[in-house]
């Protein structure tokens, strides 16, 4: 009757040492549209692709300002992100009130990490279904952290989460070495180029579906939405995915990735992880196919 | 029949003995020893100079007018580049030292390159002091915090048992507010004046102030500590300094106190 008896709560290990509910939470991030973050020596930038539930509906907010020096971009369950962002705002205000100090980015990032970790160790809770990119500027410079429902918090030069974020990551990996000396403007354009690679084939970046957040040395967190995005898209020029145009190299890379994924899927079927199964490959990531299209 | 109504319903004295009215007449609330100071430290004085801030406080712990302890250290180094000077109740001072020690330990756990500096410690102390006065259980102290601002300029702030805060290039608590501030303001009156004062000049004025305070403040000692916070992030503690070149000859002429007959 049950396909998997080890995913009924988020704190019980499977015999192969996995927490399935936590892994499902990580899958929930991939259901959300993409968010991209990147840092230079002076600035941190967030860009995100907003989605509307239906043609006549409004777009879901993707970038949230936390404080003058701090903001987050989300992918996954937006209500969970609201809970986390409210908590981060409280922490930021406490730091201002008690110490007269803007909260250090690494501290607020690890605080939400601790919060998320509790959900994987205390009975009766559920992991957050959202991934966050935390970008901010403090005494030690600009920072970008990736937060995951598993409680993992890691710092990055560039990071992307959400649907088809692998394409953005590919762009970031190719060009991150030039980020350090970028101006704020160049950094945003790099972010937008990474973001447009996550678009579905016939989609493009518009002023409705694009959000941009910039923070840096002597410049408080600025959120660009709607009309304000227009000039950025003009600077970007081409607002469609560039994946098609780099077809030759993309095709080769994707074929390699696909065959690797297929191999992994063959050897590792996560939803049938029976207690008696002695599956060595189970330590890999779950390869459960997820529908990521809008 | 007893015609005095206040005696009705009471245990009979001839059976149970005299009623212990002392219990009835006791004051309100439990005994408290912390709502009024007992062992106290007198003034803390401080002034900015071109390359930092200099503080001084003597080493006396008074029990009323009795010079009870002569080795009290009232200037505390907090972190690497901040000094906190505390006047007032000694037990509350120890509690504040405990709070600051805990705060610093907590702040050092992440090892992320962030450190609490003078403005942060000042804000924290002002919150603690105002919070305690709001509970009508104040920490009976006046505190000076000295160190470096975020932009590297010298920082000096005052907070007291009421939660009152202010900043100035030269500040003194207690008696020093009357005796030392006029002397310090002769050379550092406005914020801009501090830039024209060298460490040596500042030290001369601080030593002079401590001498005047020892002459005039009956709860003071001629042994004191001078702390110097410099902008390159160094804290020097000059301990067991003595007042120099004092002249007490005028004391022979004083009449009306003590045992002299005329």
UniProtKB/TrEMBL annotation, chain A:
SMART domains hit by this protein: Proteasome_A_N
Entry annotated with the keyword Coiled coil: no
Proteasome alpha-type subunits domain residues: 6-28
InterPro entries attached to this UniProt entry: Ntn_hydrolases_N, Proteasome_alpha, Proteasome_alpha-type, Proteasome_alpha1, Proteasome_asu_N, Proteasome_sua/b
Protein name: Nucleophile aminohydrolase
Protein origin, superkingdom: Eukaryota
Functional summary from the UniProt entry: The proteasome degrades poly-ubiquitinated proteins in the cytoplasm and in the nucleus. It is essential for the regulated turnover of proteins and for the removal of misfolded proteins. The proteasome is a multicatalytic proteinase complex that is characterized by its ability to cleave peptides with Arg, Phe, Tyr, Leu, and Glu adjacent to the leaving group at neutral or slightly basic pH. It has an ATP-dependent proteolytic activity.
Record SUPFAM superfamilies: N-terminal nucleophile aminohydrolases (Ntn hydrolases) (SSF56235)
Source species of the chain: Myxozyma melibiosi
UniProtKB keywords: Cytoplasm, Nucleus, Proteasome
Family the UniProt entry places it in: Belongs to the peptidase T1A family.
PANTHER family reported for this sequence: PROTEASOME SUBUNIT ALPHA/BETA (PTHR11599)
Compartments, as annotated in UniProt: Cytoplasm; Nucleus
UniProtKB/TrEMBL annotation, chain B:
Family that this chain belongs to: Belongs to the peptidase T1B family.
Keyword Nucleus set for record: yes
Gene Ontology cellular component list: proteasome complex
PANTHER family listed in its UniProt record: METALLOPROTEASE TLDD, PROTEASOME SUBUNIT BETA
Keywords attached to this entry: Cytoplasm, Nucleus, Proteasome
Cellular location(s): Cytoplasm; Nucleus
Upper classification of the organism: Eukaryota, Fungi, Dikarya, Ascomycota, Saccharomycotina
The keyword Cytoplasm is assigned to this record: yes
Protein name (record): Proteasome subunit beta
Main location: cytoplasm
Function: Non-catalytic component of the proteasome.
């Amino acid at each position: 009757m049950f396909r998997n008896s080890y995913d009924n709560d988020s704190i019980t290990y499977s015999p192969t040492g996995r927490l399935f509910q936590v892994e499902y939470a990580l899958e929930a991030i991939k259901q959300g549209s993409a968010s991209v973050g990147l840092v230079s020596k002076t600035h941190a930038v967030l860009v995100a692709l907003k989605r509307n539930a239906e043609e006549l509906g409004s777009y879901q907010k993707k970038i949230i300002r936390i404080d003058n020096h701090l903001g987050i971009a989300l992918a996954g369950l937006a209500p969970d992100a609201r809970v986390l962002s409210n908590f981060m705002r409280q922490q930021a205000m406490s730091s201002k009130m008690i110490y007269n100090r803007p909260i250090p980015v690494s501290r607020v990032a690890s605080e939400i990490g601790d919060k998320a970790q509790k959900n994987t160790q205390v009975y009766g809770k559920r992991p957050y279904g959202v991934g966050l990119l935390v970008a901010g500027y403090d005494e030690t410079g600009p920072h970008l952290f990736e937060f995951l429902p598993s409680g993992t918090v890691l710092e990055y030069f560039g990071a992307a989460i959400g649907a088809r974020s692998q394409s953005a990551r590919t762009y970031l990996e190719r060009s991150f070495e030039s980020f350090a000396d970028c101006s704020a403007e160049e950094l945003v354009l790099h972010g937008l180029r990474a973001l447009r690679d996550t678009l579905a084939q016939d989609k493009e970046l518009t002023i409705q579906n694009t959000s941009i957040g910039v923070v840096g040395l002597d410049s408080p967190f600025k959120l660009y939405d709607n009309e304000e995005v227009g000039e950025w898209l003009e600077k970007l020029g081409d607002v469609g995915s560039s994946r098609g145009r780099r077809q030759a190299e993309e095709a080769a890379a994707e074929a390699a990735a696909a065959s690797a994924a297929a191999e992994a899927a063959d050897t590792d079927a996560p939803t049938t992880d029976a207690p008696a199964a002695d599956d060595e490959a189970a330590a890999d990531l779950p390869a459960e196919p997820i529908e990521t299209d809008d | 029949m007893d015609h005095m109504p206040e005696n009705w319903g009471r245990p009979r004295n001839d059976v149970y003995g005299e009623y212990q009215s002392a219990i009835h007449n006791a004051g309100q609330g439990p005994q408290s020893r912390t709502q009024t100071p007992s062992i106290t430290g007198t003034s803390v004085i401080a002034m900015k100079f071109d390359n930092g801030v200099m503080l001084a406080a003597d080493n006396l712990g008074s029990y009323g007018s009795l010079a009870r302890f002569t080795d009290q250290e009232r200037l505390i180094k907090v972190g690497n580049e901040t000094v906190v000077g505390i006047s007032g109740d000694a037990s509350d001072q120890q509690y504040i030292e405990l709070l600051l020690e805990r705060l610093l330990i907590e702040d050092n756990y992440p090892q992320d390159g962030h450190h609490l500096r003078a403005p942060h410690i000042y804000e924290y102390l002002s919150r603690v002091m105002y919070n305690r006065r709001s509970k009508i259980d104040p920490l009976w102290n006046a505190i000076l915090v000295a160190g470096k601002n975020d932009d590297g300029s010298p920082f000096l702030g005052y907070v007291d048992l009421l939660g009152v805060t202010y900043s100035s290039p030269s500040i003194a608590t207690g008696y020093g507010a009357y005796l030392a501030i006029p002397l310090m303001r002769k050379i550092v009156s406005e914020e801009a004046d501090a830039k024209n004062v060298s460490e040596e000049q500042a030290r001369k004025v601080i030593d002079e102030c401590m001498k005047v305070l020892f002459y005039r403040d009956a709860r003071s000692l001629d042994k004191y500590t001078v702390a110097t916070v410099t902008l390159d992030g160094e804290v020097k503690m000059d301990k067991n300094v003595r007042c120099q070149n004092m002249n007490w000859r005028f004391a022979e002429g004083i009449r009306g106190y003590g045992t002299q007959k005329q």
